[in-house]
Amino acid sequence: MSTHATGAAPDPLTDPHRVTAARRLLDEVGGHAAFDRLSALAARLVGAGHAKVTMFTDHDVVVGGHGLPAGTVGGPALLTGALSALTVRLGGPLNVPDAGLDERLVDLPAVTSGQVRAYLGAPLVAASGHVVGVLAVYDARPRDWSDDAAELLEQLSASVVAELELSAARSAVGASLARLDIALEASDIGTWERDLRTGTVYWDERNAAIFGVEGPVEHAGDDIELMAQIHPDDHATVAAAMRAAVEGTGEFVTEMRVLRADGEVRWAVSRGRVVRDPAGEPVRFLGTTVDVTDARHAADRRLASLQRTTAIAEVAAALSAATRIDQLAHITLRGAEVLGASTGALAVFDPGSGALQLHMGRRLMDVVQVAAAEAGVDAPPPDGLEIPLDDQLPTQWVARHGERVLLGDPVEAAARFPAMAELTRVLEAHALAALPLRVEGRLLGSFVAVWSTEHRFDDDDVEVLEALTAQIALSVSRLQADAARDAAVAEMAAANARLELLAETGRVLSGSLDITEQIGALTQLVVPALGDWCWVVVADERGRLRQLASAHRDPAREGQLDDYVRAMTAGMTEHAAARVVTRTGRPLVLPEVDAGYVERALPDPDARAALARLDPRSGIVVPLVARGQTLGALGLYTTGDRGRHTEVELDTALELGRRAGVALQQARLFGQQRQLAETLQRSMLTAPPAPDHCEIAVRYVPAAAGAEVGGDWYDAFVQPDGATMLVIGDVVGHDSGAAAAMGQLRGLLRGIGHHTGGTPAEVLCGLDRASAGLDLDTMATALVARLEQDEPGLALAEARVRWSSAGHPPPVLIDGHGRVTLLDCGEPDLLLGVEPDRPRTDRVATIERGGTLLLYTDGLVERRDRDLDAGISELCRVLAGLTDLPLQQLCDRLLELMYLPDTEDDVALLAVRLHPQDLPRPAEAGPQRVPPGIEPAPDVVPGAGRDLA
Fold first, then answer.
1. Which strand ranges, in their side-by-side order, compose the sheet holding 588-590?
2. In the 8-state DSSP scheme, what is residue 236?
3. Domain 187-298 coded CATH 3.40.50.2300
4. Would you say the pTM of this structure is higher than 0.70?
5. Cα 713 → chain centroid
């Protein structure tokens, strides 16, 4: 059963710590005859036939015994191994008088074979307390072992352990001494000893070798000869360290320079300890010496490398914060100073022009500035100097060819680059290193470090220079990329601003039909976007320039600018920019507004003084062009520190000029078309007649937006029977087609109404059928009213109005007492052009003398923010306040109150007022006017109003 089974105690025989202790002693034994003697002694003293020593490691091993071959070491523990193992497990003596009677042992091979009947074993206990083996005696016959025999065997087992421990200790000491000697030999550590009573110093061979002499060496007497082999500067340090060790802690450590016999100076570190006698008095110094020259040099190299690495890291950190390439020369000089360089420079290709720009370090710049001052020439600019792309000097050569150049002295430099002789004299460049700036195969320029003394370049120097160059190249690449990105962002921002300006220009130039308002808004846009102040002048039909608009970024100076532009347009000569640009159609750039130009352009001193108050520094004047014709000019001027206009600003101003020119031309065309349209419209709207005691007023107002002729019309004529026909109409649409349809409908209605003498409904039916028959293909609203009077009406001082509506807004009646009534008797008939054969209806109302009938089109009452019904209600409300006005004034005032300036529809208005017939026609009505063939009514009609008397 395993000793590790649940509930079982661990088996001491397999205890790893016990096994390790046994193995340690066994490994140091080798061949040892003492174990044979002890085994024989044990057998003789107890009278046993056999005795042996068994060590139990990972397997039992016999290390000696009586009755075995002499010097037996190793091998299995034979048949008694099991009994010895039992002794180890017991941890104490095992006394077996007769194994054949012992149940624990009776079946063991050693017992059954008859070799072992009596057995006495004592455990071997090591200093660690572990049982590492067994000393046993045994016999082939049963016997009783006495207590003395057991005690004697235990004492002998202690002797065996002592022999083992002593053998192991001797072996370990020998091995340690051998290892120490090997370590001292390998590490070149010498040992020394000083007798403090006699002053004698002893060096072993290694210690003597450190001082460059054959050894071992013994110094007797004073220390003069000994100290002569130590650098004089280190004498005091060595003496102080020894004194402190003797008087204090007893520990001695010092570093010194050794003066070897061959003249070489080496560094050594000596360590020692004071040995004292039983009374505590120092009697001896024991110590070691080690040569640390190579380690010190390696440390110096590591320190220098660390310093260089730190310098490169500092330079890299500073380079990462640089924002301009001209800063890099000053920053990288810090790294070159680690190698002793006095100054340096960078030569970088400009990405745009390809020119090589030299950026000098601060000290080099100071030297160059002094040299330039002594030579009487201009000092180089601080932001870089363009240098020729030749091979005369290392800076350009390396930048062009991409190969490193190292020049350790002026002779070498002048031999390769003759032009370096002058630089050596002027700049004290006695040594120079030039390395290419390269990133991902792209050659960006060169880095130059300059020494004021001769300098030999070793591998470490080259390594540092290349590391610096790599950092510089990355920074140059980054700054160039940043500059390219910033330029692209700035260009994009400028392009966006230009597009926004042009988009806003399109908005303001399309937001109004008033060209003065448009150009005025344009000037407010371009200032201050493109200049500090501006003006716009345009040419009239005679070519004379007149002011259209101006703007100043300071609103308080608008008056000054306006005064100047008026003076400029009134008195400028042919040399003035506005005239030159208008005449040639090409832009004019004024980098400086100088006095000579001003005198040529403005002969009037007051005009020049007005210009001087505006303080122009530079300007551009661009033409206002449309369809190859120059209509005027736009002038943009800068003041103060704004600087001259850029090419982008000039291009933007040219585009603005083109757009303003198009807007100006469109405004002119619109004005011409609008005037023509209104003239045409009014030519078709003839003056109304003035029959009998009727006063007729008509109004036509074209739409505020657009230049097309509208479709609204009015008409009034006298039928052959003397009745007066009143017509108001509105053709669907607001274009030239509507105007043409209006003219045709008006003519047809007028002819039908005069020829037939029919009622309004009959006239509209005839007009609808005629339009269909003539294929006019148009729709319109219309209202026709007929003023009729018979004898009863004459006597009552009233007249009838008979009307018919083709989808038109209802007429409004104002009686003689000022009451306003809407003549609306149900739904109107269909529009003209919908169902020509559908009958129409006449409606009749009475008008007293002194009353007013108003006909109108929907443009008067209908708007985007209100419907027709609301507009008609507003019309009635407004008319109620105008009833006392003469008819002409009533119409004008009504339009003022009802018609908005920006209305998109035209308006036609017809109002008729019936004056009393028993009185002369009032003066405001004007004289009676009737067509030929109609008998005029008398000034006073006999019998009129008699039924009212």
1. 545-552, 533-539, 629-638, 618-626, 588-590
2. H
3. no
4. no
5. 65
